[in-house]
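Question thread 4412

I'm putting together a teaching handout and wanted feedback from people who do this every day. The idea is simple: show students a protein as raw sequence, then show them the structure tokens that encode its fold, then repeat with a second protein so they can compare. Below is the first pair exactly as I plan to print it.
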Amino acid sequence: MNDEVKLIRPGTTSLNAYINSIWNSRALIYTFAWQELKVQYSQTMLGVLWAVLRPMIILLIFTLIFGRLIKVPGITMPYALFAFSGLMAWNYFNFIVNNGSSVIINNQNLIRKFYFPKVILLLSKSLVGLVEFFISLALLFALMAILRFEFTLHIAWFLFFIMLNLLSGLTVALWLSALSVRYRDINQFVLPLIGFVIWLTPVFYPVTLIPSAYSFVLFFNPLSGIIQGYRFALLGGEFLPIQYFYTFAIVGLLFFIGLLIFIRVEDDMPDYL
């Protein structure tokens, strides 16, 4: 009798092969996103109108507090446009992080039954968030028209900063979703911290409000550069200091490393779920 035992292990998926599998399964991204949109808005009384009301209510509150009561100095454009452009970037980042970080845990049954590149779940969340982002963008354009604020040629940069916004959110979501498979409580600790970061990000106040001796702290926060990039592209603000582009390069590197880690742990996900 031959007592030799043959151990079969799954082969390591190369990055190129994984990207090809995402492309071949791209229809799933739209399918998951569409299902999410239907669930998200069909179970509310106001439906898609909530996507309009939420940012408008937040904008109204902060315009009243910072624009009228406190009157933040150093803003050379209408405060509503200033705040709304920052709020758009933050909301999109926050949506991707909060929904993407728990997407693996929330789809345990699906992951156990079917094989597909799991990062598709994160990409579908990003697509859902993009719908609300463009609704907010339409509201910003309407505000610009009401206030007779004209576009500049800087708008050619806008798509670049949207992609950075998407990349930043996906980077954090990739790391958290991969780690949360084994360490379930990591999101309970990290997500509240990320929610606090909005107060360390120039969403409702200008960067000039931060003393020059501490302004270097902004360069460690990619959302600071992205928000300023939005204001540059849409509202004609000043172009970004070169230090922000070093930060963007670091985000790109972290995304690449996070994707490799995610691919590495993907085969083990069903065992831990």
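The second pair follows. I'd like the answer to focus on this one:
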Amino acid sequence: MKKVFLQPMTVRIWHWVNALSFFVLVATGVQIRYRDIPNLATFKTSVDLHNFFGFLLIADFLLWFAFYVFTGKIRVYVPLNPKKFIVGALRQMRYYGYGMMIGEKDPHHATPEEKFNPLQQSAYFMVMLILMPLQVVSGILLWDIRMFAGWIAMLGGLRVVDIVHVVAFFLLTAFLFVHVYLTTLGRTPLAHIKAMFTGYEEVEENE
């Protein structure tokens, strides 16, 4: 086995702050939206926690975006070669749907330059560059509807902004379940999770 350094310290810190914030936002968001469910906290506490971790998530996202843009690493999220992307995506779909069931090896071998397989790349592109900005902007507008009344009206009204926020929430939450499941598909069930703590992932020498 050999170790490949995939996750810099900045990325690992961002990841775990993002994960903590997201879990708290999901819990408090459900509490705010559905007030009849069993209460884990008062409504005011839920709102205060939601606001605090919402701004923490925004700050974390902006730091992530700045790091990836200024270091040029943002390209790992963008498929630059359409032909290579399509071929790789089909190969990866076959692996997830059949190959891994019969013991085949993952056709994608992560490197610092190509951390994600094509399916991961397209999913993270959608999540980080489309859904997260929508969630951030709609969340800020809903944080103070009086202050941002003009912007809300320009975007179609409070109902439209609220729907965007809730739909983005459901899509991001659905992605979370898929993401957690996929982390267990490494060389061992905890290999990918361990790499997000240490920065290193172990792979076979011939890979």
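Top answer:
Good format. For the second protein you could add a caption like this: The domain at 2-203 is CATH 1.20.950.20 (Fumarate Reductase Cytochrome B subunit). The longest strand covers residues 2-5.
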